[in-house]
């Protein structure tokens, strides 16, 4: 499916539309870090007779343009909110995975009239709780990187150093490195507490990237939210092997919205 390319602030965003243009419900699908709208396409197709789906490539991913350097999730949210405000009247439901959940939380908190509900799968946005041993190991690694960085100039050698000490996402971030750094260091506790639309939080019990304990804390912060923990899935298989259960939760939310 060939996406449409639309202007979005200082960049462009690619999106694929599925379903009838006159549907009373619009589902907005926002993928996780390092992915594109393709990660949600199978799920979106399951709803194409009941709603209009808009499957996004967030700026910097897929067929979209790069965001301005150092964009934070609030910048993504504000730019997408400007686009959401141009859509025809009707209910709008945000469906996000991981990084896409960060953006969704910001949209719901900063632009509360634009969303009627959210389904957040493996939502990130809060710092994970770590044991003492893990905290010590992480701080030691950060300290070692900062010391080594003092003796390595910017350029290929510094890139090699980042690759040695950084995560897989950091090694592959390229021009989005500053965006990634801002995202992984943010704490959206205050943002989540301002969300007022009906929200369903879904996690896999085997997720090591965004463990269910993050969902438990978000559940306490988001008034009236629902938490679902699905057995047997991790951060990525929840969208593949677990997509039927995720689809069921989306359908329940839509029924609740009328």
Describe this structure in words.
- With 258 residues, the protein is α/β, with parallel strands linked by helices.
- The chain folds into 2 domains: 4-127 and 187-257, Rossmann fold; 132-176.
- 39% of the residues lie in helices and 19% in strands.
- It has helices spanning 41-45, 73-84, 99-110, 132-149, 156-165, 168-172, 177-185, 189-192, 212-221, 243-257, and strands at residues 4-8, 11-18, 25-30, 52-57, 91-97, 117-121, 199-204, 226-230.
- The protein has an 8-stranded mixed β-sheet, sandwiched between helices.
- Helix 3 (99-110) links the parallel strand 5 and strand 6 (117-121).
Describe this protein with a few key phrases:
10 helices, 8 strands, alpha/beta, 39% helix, 258 residues, eight-stranded mixed sheet, Rossmann fold, 2 domains
In terms of topology, how is this protein built?
Layout (H helix, E strand, L loop, with lengths): L3 E5 L2 E8 L6 E6 L10 H5 L6 E6 L15 H12 L6 E7 L1 H12 L6 E5 L10 H18 L6 H10 L2 H5 L4 H9 L3 H4 L6 E6 L7 H10 L4 E5 L12 H15 L1
Parallel strand pairs: 3-4, 3-5, 5-6, 6-7, 7-8
Antiparallel strand pairs: 1-2, 2-4
